Amino acid sequence: MNHHEIWRDTQTLQVPPQLHDDPFNSGNITLTGNGYLGYRGTFPDARRKEYVACTVSDSYDMADGTWKELCTVPNGLYLAVDGHSSCDAEKKKHGLQFSAGRTFGSCSFSDTAVGELQISFERFASLTDLHCVIQQVNLRSTEPGVITIRQGIDGDIWSLNGNHFRSMDYSRTTEGFLVAQGKTTETALPLVTGSVMIGLPEGSRTLEQEQGIFTVHEITLTAGEPVTIMMIMSTCSGNDVSDPYESVLSDLARLIAVPFYELLAAQQDHWDQFWDAYDIHIEADPEADCLLRYSMYHNRIATPAHTDHLPIGARGLSCQAYQGAAFWDQEIYNMPMYTWVEPETAKRLLLYRYKTLQGARDKAAALGYAGAFYPWISGQSGKELCPDYFFKDVLTGRKIRNHFNDWQIHISPDIGYALLSYFQVTGDLGFMREHGMQMLLEISLFIYSRVMYNTHRQRYEILCVLGPDEYHEKADNNTFTNYQCRYILQETLRLLEIIREEDPDACTRTLEQAGVTEQQLHSFEEMSRKLFVHAPDPESGLIEQFDGYFDLEDITPAALAERLIDDQEYWGWPNGIAYETQVTKQADVVQLFMLHPYPVDIMRKNYRYYEQRTQHRSSLSPGVHAIVAANCGMTDQAYTYFMRSCSVDIGNTHPPTSGGTFIGGIHTAACGIAWQIVTRGFCGLQITPAGIAITPHLPAGWSSISFRLTILGSPLKLTVSHDTLTVEAHQFNGTPIEVSWGLRSVQITDCSPAILHR
Ligand code: IFM
């Protein structure tokens, strides 16, 4: 796509004209949110058919007997001018100032009783008051006259799988606040939404309807003079406050007294702190810089940074798709930027996994294994949310028994990988002692119980799994999975010895809590030595994705697509067109390189082989290719994949349904990986035993990349150009940090800037 049409500056993004009449995608892109709620970027008069929705975290509920998902609540920011429904398309503006988390838009109606009527709005989900969304609307006409507006709480909202409210009562308080009080369908969770508006003369009438409560106002407009209205919506659930009704009213009463510009200034302060913490900048490519920041914005608003008991959903809070729940995306895609820059947020996400250990233990036990097998789809409790039947065969209408839930075992070691990365970057041994070690031990115990010994080959093997490439279910010895399992066993034992040495009692206690014996530790060690992992072929250098993969039909994704009978067909197991071919849905061996780099010549050969066979149907895939291509010095390819990964939503490149299941919304993993592509990919950032290493491969058009990170408690700012690295320590905490580039290195021992040359 032509990015010129969407980026205005590196703070703001405009909805591309081709998406102006696509409220679903434009509503995703311009979403405002704060990790507690996400309010889609729809116009104030939008209703269900325009996908208006405010998705609230921690509100998991099942309304249709199949999908447990987050709820969307009645829309407290509804405002429409009576008698005007379609605006002049060419005069429509719609965008997102992501530097401040603010959605904006305007549209004009010609030939009204007041001449041309322009309605513009701006809206933000507050980072100061997480339950609140603030909206300002301006009305301006070219001629004087009277218009009627309807404003209030609209219950005609988008909900993906059924009506999540068994009851909904609408009322108006004596202060004039409108309130919708509901109880959810499955669990009777109270969810209350309130709305208030200021800026209009007294004298409205209240209109109660089956699906909402509104006030109707007649407004006298003077030609050319705007009328400005501020609206506040607050929403609270019984899971986050003791009395949602009182909390909502108190939010409204408090905020109504504060002018809009003050609320906006506070919002800007919060976002300024976020951008200052990362201080990331691509010099000489404003489009790339804009897309990077836009992606980081969406990663942030999907993250429940305010708590340690909630996950990042695969579609964030942009809608209910993927149940508002976490996948391995959280640890491998969303989390690393926090690990390196805001470790407190990374820790909260890991604590969420700690708090959901019981769900993982139950899942392992139900399948006949020990330890912790984390759910493929994880909501509030850590119980597996992934149904047995995820997709259906669109040709026959029959359900497909996908084994995402019970065969995709790499989720547990992936969480272990994130724990170890957190420790390597932060050195936070206290966290590992109190929480991380126990998780690692229980994950190792699961691996130990899942792995089989092949007496004939005298090695351990892992059979019947599903690796990252989800088309090939029932694979044996998937290289990614086996490597991750082996790594976790080895590193768990290594970390345990560090803790044992430092605090033997803590070590004994943790082993007891995890239910792991000393004898089992010996078995972990033996298993880690003998666990089979496909090695690069001595001649070709290729690594087989799983046993027998190279015997499958070799065909490109484009040629394979010609066999489709219906565009919506699911390509994978058991009868999809890709299953018996080498076409992969997403990075798998290439994914392994992102986490565990191999020698560059091996990575390059495998990258070239697998890249041609990868369909990238998963939005997770292009970003991984960008990182590995950059690490291999294939900078042009890396750049193309970077732009592609960051444009998944803006370019609307991924259809919202697959195999008959709705999976649309903001692709949060693709947003999360943007920071990693720039730092780990183009700068080649890696952790080393003594600090960090960089191996830059910058695109020709970029003159430098600068960013901040904190390593072992020392905050550093790095500026990486094609031939120079500048390191500035903003605070030195006493631990010397070695920064290396190839064979050159420098010790950071104080705050003076250090420079390395290629
Ligand atoms: O976790 C991913 C998976 O790898 C591919 N399908 C979508 C999931 C959620 O993003």
Layout of SSEs?
Blueprint (H helix, E strand, L loop, with lengths): L6 E3 L2 E3 L8 H7 L2 E2 L3 E3 L14 E9 L5 E6 L1 E7 L11 E5 L4 E11 L2 E11 L6 E10 L3 E10 L10 E8 L5 E7 L5 E9 L6 E5 L2 E10 L5 E11 L6 H12 L4 H19 L2 E3 L2 H17 L26 H6 L1 H6 L1 H13 L1 H10 L22 E4 L6 E3 L2 H4 L3 H16 L2 H22 L1 E3 L4 E3 L17 H24 L1 H11 L3 H13 L26 H5 L27 H7 L4 H12 L9 H11 L3 H12 L10 E2 L2 E2 L5 H15 L3 E3 L2 E3 L10 E8 L2 E8 L2 E6 L7 E5 L2 E5 L5 E4 L1
Parallel strand pairs: 27-31
Antiparallel strand pairs: 1-2, 2-8, 3-4, 4-5, 5-6, 7-12, 8-9, 9-10, 10-11, 11-18, 12-17, 13-14, 14-15, 15-18, 16-17, 19-28, 20-21, 22-23, 24-25, 26-27, 28-29, 29-30, 30-33, 31-32
Give a quick set of tags describing it.
single chain, 758 residues, alpha+beta, ten-stranded antiparallel sheet, five-stranded antiparallel sheet, 20 helices, 33 strands, 32% helix, 25% strand, binds 5-hydroxymethyl-3,4-dihydroxypiperidine
What is the structure about, briefly put?
By secondary structure, this protein is α+β, with helices and mostly antiparallel strands. The protein is built from 20 helices and 33 strands. 5-hydroxymethyl-3,4-dihydroxypiperidine binds next to loops.
